[in-house]
Write a sequence for this structure.
């Protein structure tokens, strides 16, 4: 096993997109940021220096961080932010994970431009569980604003309204041929006739689940979220923000150029969204580069095609025989959803520009999560600082009703708070994640830090323990770090709390974090050193 050292300098850099030059926050002047390539068992040491004018932290999305919770990265959860001029070194070891993950800023909306791929190959000398691909290409799907993303979210926070939707989607940072001033820089992915390549697809978009497809080529899915899957073929992928999918693609079509394309899967109703399409070009190397060849455009599902999403997610099965906990110690039920807060008295009108003079909110079990300000939750827990959080996050919703019915519950007014749920080291945890249609039902990509979890089942309507338990897959459920909870539906996840620390679980639609769709599991130390959190690094940023 090797130790890989990297320097990340977070800094503004001129980036031109959609005809306009922006002072974009980047890592090392690159957009998207550098790709990190390591092997299972290796250690990553990344020194992050902040030369931007914003606070920043970096999160290693999907890395388990066994006993190294101080390196996880979400601001005010496991660390205070790295202030302008400051630095912090993240240090962690890959233990058993293989496939595609990514890294991104975990502070305000900086991750709109501060992100990159994190590729974990098998231990040196170990094979993939599929034929070795000739070439491997990260495909980072992103979202671009023709404005400073930080200003976009600040404005939304000030007005209580929904933020402006993005102006483009991107593939490896480029919008592609269908946008103004963009054709010249369209991402080109080479392929040779007869060869099989691995595409490592990552949805790094801020607020939008995306469909992805390649014209005329079958995609063979072999992994997701750095866990291998029983291979299956499909024409189209759907990835919620945060999710990754590894697919094999074979150059079995006439030598030419084919578009790969991504656009929105939009399940929320009556909500504006970016309805544009980003493209890259799959280019056969033997094809003439003459512009006279017409690039083949693939069909994409309709923006609201939930049936395609369901059919796709039902194909996910772990490779081999995973150890799924068959008994549970914690049986939790969390609602996830949006809502509208009444305008507080003494508020100016401009600050209540949500529907009918309200402010947007969102919550889990009617708690709208608020980050602490002066210390991180993990530091407070570790040092015993009182008054930072309360350990009363509810195990189930305080009021029960028809969560996915058509009733809009404007009366479901969340309480705001920094509430955590404590888990004993080693406890076996089940969480039912239930979408609600308060304001609008929506497919929420729920991401848990510090863990991978098994997705035992997904379904529509209200979860019904009597009949839905029979649908649980305890044999080969997929292991993931982000679950796209079906719109007007539910998903059931299980994990063993074997990693001490403070682990945020949140919707990976970033605006929903701003509105409070998050909670924190506080996992206590077990017996002995190997079950306990390591001591905090000496350079851990303080507030
Ligand atoms: Cu990729 Cu807390 O996120």
């Amino acid at each position: 096993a090797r130790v890989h050292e990297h320097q990340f300098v977070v800094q503004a850099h001129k980036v031109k997109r959609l005809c306009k030059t922006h002072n974009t926050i980047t890592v090392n002047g690159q957009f998207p940021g550098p790709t990190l390539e390591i092997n299972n068992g290796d250690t990553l040491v990344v020194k992050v220096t902040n030369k931007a004018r914003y606070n920043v932290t970096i999160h290693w999305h999907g890395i388990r961080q066994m006993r190294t919770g101080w390196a996880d990265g979400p601001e005010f959860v496991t660390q205070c932010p790295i202030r302008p001029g400051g630095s912090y070194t993240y240090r962690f070891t890959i233990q058993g994970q293989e496939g595609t993950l990514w890294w991104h800023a975990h502070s305000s909306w900086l991750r709109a431009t501060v992100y990159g791929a994190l590729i974990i190959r098998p231990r040196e000398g170990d094979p993939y569980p599929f034929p070795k691909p000739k070439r491997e290409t990260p495909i980072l799907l992103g979202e671009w604003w023709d404005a400073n993303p930080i200003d976009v979210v600040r404005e939304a926070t000030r007005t209580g309204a929904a933020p402006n939707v993005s102006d483009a989607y991107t593939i490896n940072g480029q919008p592609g041929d269908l946008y103004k001033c963009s054709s010249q820089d369209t991402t080109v992915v080479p392929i040779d006739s007869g060869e099989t390549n691995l595409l490592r697809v990552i949805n790094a978009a801020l607020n939008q689940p995306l469909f992805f497809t390649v014209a005329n080529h079958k995609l063979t899915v072999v992994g997701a979220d750095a866990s291998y899957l029983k291979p299956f073929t499909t024409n189209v992928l759907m990835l919620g923000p945060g999710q990754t999918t590894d697919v094999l693609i074979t150059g079995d079509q006439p030598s030419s150029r084919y578009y790969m394309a991504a656009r929105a899967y939009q399940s929320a109703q009556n909500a504006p969204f970016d309805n544009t399409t980003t493209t890259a070009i799959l280019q056969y190397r033997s094809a003439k580069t003459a512009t006279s060849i017409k690039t083949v455009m693939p069909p994409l599902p309709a923006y609201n095609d939930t049936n395609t999403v369901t059919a796709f997610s039902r194909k996910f099965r772990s490779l081999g025989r995973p150890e799924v906990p068959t008994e549970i110690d914690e049986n939790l039920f969390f609602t996830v959803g949006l809502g509208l807060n009444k305008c507080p008295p003494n508020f100016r009108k401009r600050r209540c520009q949500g529907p009918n003079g309200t402010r947007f909110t969102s919550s889990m079990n009617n708690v709208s999560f608020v980050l602490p300000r002066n210390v991180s939750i993990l530091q407070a827990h570790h040092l015993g600082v009182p008054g930072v959080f309360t350990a009363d996050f509810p195990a189930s919703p305080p009021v029960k009703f028809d969560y996915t019915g058509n009733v809009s519950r404007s009366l479901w007014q969340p309480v705001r708070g920094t509430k955590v749920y404590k888990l004993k080291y080693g406890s076996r945890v089940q969480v039912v994640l239930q979408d609600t249609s308060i304001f609008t039902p929506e497919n929420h990509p729920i991401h848990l830090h510090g863990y991978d979890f098994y997705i035992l089942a997904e379904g529509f309507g209200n979860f019904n323990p009597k009949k839905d338990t029979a649908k649980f897959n305890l044999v080969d459920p997929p292991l993931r770090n982000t679950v796209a909870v079906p719109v007007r539906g539910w998903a059931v996840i299980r994990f063993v709390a074997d990693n001490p620390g403070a682990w945020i679980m949140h919707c990976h639609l970033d605006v929903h974090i701003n509105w409070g769709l998050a909670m924190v599991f506080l996992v206590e130390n077990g017996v002995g050193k190997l079950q306990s959190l390591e001591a905090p690094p000496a350079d851990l940023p303080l507030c």
Remarks:
- The pocket of CU-O-CU linkage is lined by residues 59, 61, 74, 104, 106, 242, 447, 449, 504, 506, 508 (CB under 6 Å).
- The two ends are 35 Å apart (CA to CA).
- Helices lie at 149-159, 306-313, 377-383, 465-468, 510-514.
